[in-house]
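Slide 14.
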Amino acid sequence: MSDTRRRVKVYTLNEDRQWDDRGTGHVSSTFVERLRGISLLVRAESDGSLLLESKISPNTAYQKQQDTLIVWSEADNYDLALSFQEKAGCDEIWERICQVQGRDPALDITQDPIDESEEERFEEIPETSHLVELPPCEQSRLEEIADLVTSVLSSPIRREKLALALMTEGYIKKLLGLFRVCEEVDNREGLHHLYEIVRGVLFLNKAALFEVMFSDDCIMDVVGCLEYDPALVQPKRHREFLTKTAKFKEVIPITDSELRQKIHQTYRVQYIQDIILPTPSVFEENFLSTLTSFIFFNKVEIVSMLQEDEKFLTEVFAQLTDEATEDSKRRELVNFVKEFCAFSQTLQPQNRDAFFKTLANLGILPALEIVMGMDDLQVRAAATDIFSYLVEFSPSMVREFVMQEPQQTDDDVLLINVVIKQMICDSDPELGGAVQLMGLLRTLIDPENMLASTNKTEKTEFLSFFYKYCMHVLTAPLLANTAHDKNSKDLQEGSTKVNPVCPDNFQTAQLLALILELLTFCVEHHTYHIKTYIMNKDLLRRVLVLMNSKHTFLALCALRFMRRIIGLKDEYYNRYIIKGNLFEPVINALLDNGTRYNLLNSAIIELFEFIKVEDIKSLIAHIVDNFYKALESIEYVQTFKGLKGRYEQEKDRQSQRLNSFPTCRYRRDARSLDEDEELWFNDDDDDDDGEAVEKRMGDDFSDSYGKYMEAKKGAANGANGANNNGKAAAIPPASPAVTPNNSSASSVKTVPLPATPVVKTALVGLVDYPDDEDEEEDEEEEDQSPRKRPRLSS
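Slide 15: predicted structure.
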């Protein structure tokens, strides 16, 4: 019994003047040696950890509110509250606090500390004036009453005395009766005084007074008094709004009269705080803390009462999912559930868990599938908000639901696909809803919040599900807008900006940017699944079509996608990029950008700088082999010269390795060459994929920085009467084995021929290395400038 009586929730007031739940535990009052005094201790009921340790200071003002709350401040901006499960427990701790401070437990507040001047002032007051003497409640005395109420606000003690006087004499109801008389006779001066009086009474910050003022028979008169602000020429019409404009909608009739009254009261008090009362000044911020608490705990009570009414919630969800329900009715039901979820944020964590589990058991997720597919924009927006509450609460719960769906329904109506389609079809020009949904999707596919069990992992199961059933829906707009890129290769240089494939519509471009942002996230976090998808769909080629877009932000999104892929330093991706010649659209964009020094220019250069700094050998070889002539004129950064330098260093290293085995230089069969290549890849290639092994004979030759090209060109020289007859005779037997895969490691525009391969590309000025390069090996390579090399084959 004592455990239940002492069971409390600990709250702290945050900077936004909202109460944050710090946990549930059991409170006790005991002497703490370290603090040298009687202290309040709250230990968590879950693990016994200390939630609160607060010394009962003789000068701290404690307030008891609503019979089960004790509120106090430990610093200027640090307010605390204990919410008791039972009134008896609250009374017990309150008596202990009053005992330590030497106060009367009958009072609902202990006296605040006062400065010396105030203490002296009160010493002069006769003993008979312990309570404030209120003037008679008459029209002629309203000014005197207003002055009295205003004057006590600066003194905590006098505020407490005035509050006691107002409570004991039933003064509030007399004042509100006087308001009705003044309004009937249009006594404006009296009404202005009543405004000051009621506003001052609210600033007394007393829960007991609020209970009277916000009761059904008083609250509208309180609102009426607050209409007559002396600063306004004409009074506001707040009562007209509350009674005529604001309508209470019962989607399902509420039979509990106490619950109905609590809902009405909370709405009206919230209206008073948000609309009627002016924003408090710095000096008045704490005057309405009890009002904020009053609203907060009302909301907690409403959610708890609704949640306990199983019949009510069952009926709500039954009608929400019933096909016969009218659209207008369903709209009201969705808005109710949204408001219900918003109120649930006031619950403590364990109660919030139970709340959302109750919604899940009642079928909230299947209901969302229905309403998110409706044409009504308001309904879809409300459903999105509900979905965001659920994802924020438990992504795993949502994932578990959607993974069970394929057994029961078609792909098109899967919940995640419904969400993706709503994102794609967002009619808002700024795509506000799409941005929100994209964030929710990212949360759902984020491996960081996926749980791992002993036998199987949620990550593996869900990602397999997502890529099987949902990824094609997400990428559909991207693939549709880049579908005809095959013909774009034939465009002349400089004409890429008129590529009809790229979307000129700003809204479409924004949508594609969102999709690319999500795909970029996948590249970073979904290594295996996204890699397989990119390869199967040739996705990077399709994405790079968007480098031609007139919307620079979209081109940057496409570039960022490629940058993330390269940033993984995965040779599997690197071979894919080389085989598809996928640097060409990037370099075209750099050249088309011209001399403009903008974000696109910097982002592209950073991409190549990363490749240089990280020394990604296969990509360096591909870039220098195929694009250096087009890039060598860019001298305002040293990036491309640096790439060329790394290329030459690696070539020299390979040449020295060959020279260290002179007997193998001119008489080397294909198998021994393969073994040397195998050693090079063991040093520099981290990829163990089966495809890498399968293509090693072809891919690895070109990855050895020109050695294979030298051999082939040596063969060509032999056919044309060159001097390197020994080397030319040695290489042709290996050519049939490597020629079919040659495109895997060089530009796709290289045309392999049995005897005389010729490198061709669509870019003007791409590199064609000289046929007599083997002769150069016998001379100093630095004697020939890289800028002059292309001219040898021209």
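Speaker note: The radius of gyration is 39 Å.
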